[in-house]
Amino acid sequence: MKKKLFDIRLFTEALRRLRTPAVFLLAVNTLAAMLVSIGYVMSRSGAVPVIPRSLNAVSLHPFLLSAFLLAAPVFMLILFSYTTTRRGSDFYDAVPQTRVCVFLSFFAAVLCCLAVLCFGTSLAAGVTASLFPRYLRFVWSELLLYSWHMFLCSLYVSAAFACGIFLTGTVFTNIVVSLLILFAPRLILTVMVENVVAASGVLVSGRLFPLFSFDINMVFGFFTQLLGFGMPQYLLRTDAGLYTLILGLLLTAGAALLYRFRRSETAEVAAPNKILGAVYRLTLAFVICLIPVTFIFQTAARRQPVTGSFVFEQIVLYLIAVIAFLAYELIATRRLKKLAESLPSLLLLPLLNLAVLGVMFFSLSAARSYRPDADDLAYVRLVRGYADNYSFSEEMPYFTRREDEIRLTDPDALRIVSAGLKRALHYTDPAPDMDSSYQSAMTSRIVVLKSGLRERTRIIYVTQTESQTLDKKLTESPGLRDMYMDLLPADDPSLFLYFLGLGGGESLLSEDAAKRIYTIFRSEVEEKGFDVWYSVSRGAPDSLDILRVRLSRSGRLYYFNVPIAPAFSKTYEAYLSEIQDVNTALQQEVITALRNDPSRYLNAQLYVPGTSPEYLFFNIKETGAADLLQQASGRTLDPEKTLLRVMTTVTKLEKGTWISRDITALFVLEPEEAEQFRSMSRLEPEPYSLPAAVDD
Question: What is residue 532's three-state secondary structure?
């Protein structure tokens, strides 16, 4: 009796065949994973003081991407290479196991190797980084999520290659059809969606139905980010991981059915039948046709004139698609007779183009017909600065991102958004009577509208007054107040705290000191309330330093800043107390540097309690500033007194290498001393003149 689902002997045989490439890739990736952390440490070991770098999982182990980029397709092509020969196909058809059992046993071996590669090398990366807590910070749960998602990507790629291998009988067609299965459906959908978004004038890319987003498919999203459309933050998104898992399981089931009904005669031929052969050729040609389809759609949607050069360019692009169609058939079959027989199927290519254009124009019409009245809206949400753009960076502003979640139900806000959408639809319609001068006077905002069963994201046009009203409604909403007041405690494991430095870009305090100051700040926020904290968070011009708070949420890195400013007097005082000892040492470094190079000019800031900072600029040699600073050194930092922040650069020879670093020190000044420094800053720098010419 044949085994139906799994056979351990086939499984071990598959592992034996994959042993060499699997061990090689495992060794290379393990070494690479360790070297990444060591490289970060070595690059930061010369910094004074050392600021630990907070890494997301992708930055910590970027070489894990090779699991689905290289390992999965290589393993599948090696293990199922017998399907491209008639002898190999006949042999495995004669084994005492069912075809489904053969596939599942072999496929399980591939997944086993990929799991060891993903989780084993991630463990090596995490352990190596953990050895250097002074230099590197990461979150273990995030690294585990990243490893799991890379395994899911590998599962998806392996299943897609399984389908491609079982649908064809040569190595060339194996690879081409597998790549078409991986990318063609999502590429066609993405081109259609992005064209409609661009032509609508009111839709927002990435803010449509979730399944329309190009990066919901993690494998496809990776290649789009290579073209400059984003960073691999989506590799840590749980929704993208779930989608990729479902897609991988569906393709795995499809591959099992394809292998179950695959005929041995498929080996060594391009396609099992003429219909599938035509599908492969047409899909490849149609992917190239997406370029002229885009040009035609955008020209028609914008009602632009059709010129002779435009027609010629489209003809050339369609000829390239036909050449690709014929080239694929010639390479796959190597027979001119087969090439001639494939020509009639070319007639379907223009029909496919027309069908896609029809769907795009229908979608565009439907999108522009959405014009809800204020009474039809349940709520609106304001997107503050289009948060999706932050996917291009490693960190995103925490509060700005979360402000998107606040729902506004105020009638005035609903009325403004409804009118703004109708105005945007009118002024983005490519009609001849568009008043561009009036349009330029508007402010564009991105909003999320809820009417009916789903939310829709749109671009609206509002006046400056209406835009300020919307911001005011957001500020007054209880949800925003609760969000700003809900600050995580300092001991939360996802937080990493450090100071940006006193203008010199250096954190002068340890993380423990930062946690103590942050704890005082949290209690002071509760004491002073939302209005003070919200006002300071928008930017405090009199801040002495910035406490950067980094946190990780759902695989993404966020940050927000805590200004060290007089508005939070207890925090301000605690900061000056913590920095007293470090500052005393820095004062002498600054003074020594100024004495050693008296020709330099000095930048300084004067902080007088109750007033905005004053920016000073003076010549050291002419003013004797070093002596005045020496006189003011050693005093206790007092928030009630005038402070002078001095910034300069120190260059030292350390271990045979000249190292330059910016240093900053604070000095407490008496009123007469502050006035002296003000008078110094009136001196203008000497004009620069070229040296006199020297005769040979």
Answer: helix
> Rounded distance, CA 171 to CA 168, Å?
8
Distance CA 535, CA 515 (A): 23
DSSP annotation of 629 reads: H
- Is the Cβ–Cβ distance between 14 and 105 less than 8 Å? yes
Taking the C-alpha atoms of residue 366 and residue 363, their distance in angstroms, rounded to an integer, is 5
Helical residues (DSSP H) of 369-499, grouped into ranges: 398-403, 411-427, 436-440, 464-476, 478-485
Residues in contact with 690: Cβ distance below 8 Å, sequence separation at least 6, in sequence order: none
Q: Give 291-295 contacts, CB < 8 A, sequence gap 24+.
A: 291/317, 292/317, 292/318, 292/321, 292/353, 293/191, 293/353, 293/356, 293/357, 294/191, 294/195
- Predicted local confidence at residue 395, as pLDDT: 67
Question: Which run of H or of E encompasses 330?
Answer: helix 308-333
What is the reported pTM? 0.75
Element (H, E) at 615: strand 614-619
pLDDT average per 10 residues of sequence, the chain (696 residues): 76 92 94 88 62 74 90 94 86 82 93 95 91 80 89 96 92 92 92 90 81 80 66 69 92 93 83 85 92 92 86 91 88 79 85 93 91 91 61 66 86 92 84 53 86 87 89 86 87 81 59 89 90 80 80 74 86 89 83 74 79 76 75 87 82 58 82 83 48 40
Tokens of 577: 């107390």
State the sign of the Cα–Cα–Cα–Cα dihedral 252, 257, 263, 264: positive
> What DSSP state is assigned to residue 99?
H
Q: Which residues contact 45 (CB under 8 A, 6 or more apart)?
A: 135
User: Is the distance from CB of 506 to CB of 51 less than 8 angstroms?
Assistant: yes
Name the amino acid, one letter, at 82: Y
Listed residue (66, 388, 392) closest to 231, CA to CA = 392
Helix (H, G, I), strand (E, B) or coil at 31: helix
DSSP state, residue 650: E
Other Cβ atoms within 10 Å of 414 Cβ, number: 22
CA distances from 651 to 268, 592, 647, 667, 687 (A): 70, 11, 14, 22, 25
Please give the C-alpha separations between residue 672 and each of 217, 340, 647, in angstroms, as whole numbers: 66, 97, 21
CA–CA separation, 649 vs 155, rounded Å? 53
Comparing CA positions, the residue from 226, 246, 86 lying closest to residue 155 is 246
Contact (CB, 8 A) for 4 and 100: yes
- Residue 123 in tokens: 């463990």
Phi, psi of 429, rounded to the nearest 5 degrees: -75, 125
Model pLDDT, residue 673: 85
- Burial degree of 686 (CB within 10 A; 0-12, 13-18, 19+): exposed
H or E, element range at 74: helix 72-79
Distances from the Cα of 517 to the Cα of 54, 204, 528, 546, 579, angstroms: 20, 41, 16, 12, 11
The rounded distance, in Å, linking the Cα atoms of 126 and 245 is 24
